[in-house]
Design brief:
Strand order of the largest sheet: 3-4-5-6
Number of domains: 2
Helix content: under 10%
CATH class of the largest domain: Mainly Beta
Structural class: mainly beta
Strand content: 35-45%
Number of strands: 12
Number of helices: 0
Length: 182
């Protein structure tokens, strides 16, 4: 895994790296996807390891010196959907930070509580053809979005669930903002 400084887009610079099997990194065999998140003053990365059948959590607060802090593997400690993971995305609900991981071979997704990066916890899972899930076969990537039920839009001074297909209409004499209110 390579950390790259792109603060000057025309001149990307290598600033740090990590390899599977060294310095505590156990889940970097064929990394497929990565996402970052912040807890307190630290920045972390979670990497989906296709051939490691799990995820690696890394403190990247000092990009020149990434530090392995935690990992999770398929069929251990309640993790059931991490066989050949391909995609990962993080999100926050309340005060907890989670990752959702797409598992190609398991045909499902694993939700992981990463609020304590050194101790990832299986929070939930879904599998194709179970519980109404019918489109997870070959799960390759994931993303998240906020439920429309959690969003209120402030359009022309009125709070509405939606405004012109998720964006507010504007007119010459009306100002409209689309603030998400949780």
């Amino acid at each position: 895994m390579q950390l790259i400084d792109v603060s000057i887009p025309s001149s990307p610079t290598a600033v740090g790296s990590a390899s599977d099997g060294s310095n505590g990194f156990t889940m970097l065999n064929s990394p497929q996807d990565v996402d970052t998140f912040v807890i307190g003053s630290n920045t972390y990365a979670i990497v989906a390891s296709r051939w490691g059948n799990g995820v690696q959590l890394i403190d990247v607060s000092t990009p020149s010196s990434p530090t392995a802090v935690g990992s999770a593997s398929d069929d251990a400690n309640g993790f059931t959907e991490l066989y050949s993971p391909r995609g990962v995305n993080t999100f926050v609900v309340g005060s907890n930070t989670y990752a959702i991981v797409a598992s190609y071979e398991d045909k499902g997704v694993q939700v992981i509580d990463v609020s304590i990066p050194s101790n990832p916890v299986a929070a939930g899972a879904a599998n194709n053809d179970v519980g109404g899930f019918t489109a997870l076969n070959g799960a390759n990537s994931v993303d998240n979005f906020r439920s429309r039920q959690l969003q209120l839009r402030n359009c022309h001074g009125q709070q509405r669930e939606s405004c012109a297909a998720d964006r507010c209409e504007r007119s010459a004499d009306h100002h409209c903002s689309c603030d998400v209110l949780l």
